[in-house]
Known about the structure:
This protein is mostly helical and 301 residues long. The chain has helices at 14-21, 32-43, 49-77, 89-92, 97-121, 126-139, 153-174, 179-202, 204-210, 215-219, 221-242, 256-267, 276-299. Helix content is 69%, strand content 0%.
Amino acid sequence: MADWSIVNAPAPSPAQLWIAGARPRTLPAAVPPVLAGTGAATYADSFVWWKALLALGVSLALQIGVNYANDYSDGIKGTDDDRVGPLRLVGSGLVPARSVKLVAFAFFGLGGALGLVLAATTSWWLLLVGIAAIGAAWTYTGGPSPYGYRALGEVSVFVFFGLVAVLGTSYVQVEELTWPAFAASIGVGALACAILVANNLRDIPTDSVTGKRTLAVVMGDRRTRRFFTLLLAVALMTLIWASAFTPWALLGLLMVPFAVRARQTVASGSSGMALIPVLRDTGLAELVYAAGLGLGLVIGA
């Protein structure tokens, strides 16, 4: 539990608490799939700006929703009672669990409503994709058998924040799946997955105690660090694939300085709070990767 009496700063206001609970540092992760997917759509000569904006709205709403949902679920399970990292609303005892749950579902509802517009103007079967995405967001740490506690979190992130998000953004504009979109979805998914791997690497000690069997807990410290490096390599290799469509796709290589810095910290054996900058650097790498790749596809169209 947080003890604000030992902190020289005043207790956060309600607005500050809710902003912190939304985990604003994670929100840029909602942008890369839309940038890459829109770049792929433009390469196919099918850019539709308002659908791209709606896709961004869906991505942001689901990202915020899953952040609050994880806060709620981990908080009531006691996983966040003694965590390393930013404040958690329920785990700290500063916000009622029921309120956090309601806000999580409000954002899921907002994402669903925006997705409904996209489905209505593209194809109704996209509703099934949206339902699956919301279900995956909630059951990551929620429900009676959360898959995030069974080493499946990285698989879900790769699928929904990589394949589904990028291909979905491209599809609602092009109305067909294209190879550039597939390439982009794999690269973005690998980097999104790397962010979660770094986060779970940091939390191995506390997750092991609370019984949260993340992939990092199952693999162990050393292999998790190697897996992080492998994911960065996958992202780079997909750029080579994308460059077969247009050499401009290699603008995604602008992510290399951020990826190298993140990899060096992970490879050095850093742990605990020292791994927090890795989350920032990997997030920046993903954002620059998607922006560079997306721009490259636009230029090469």
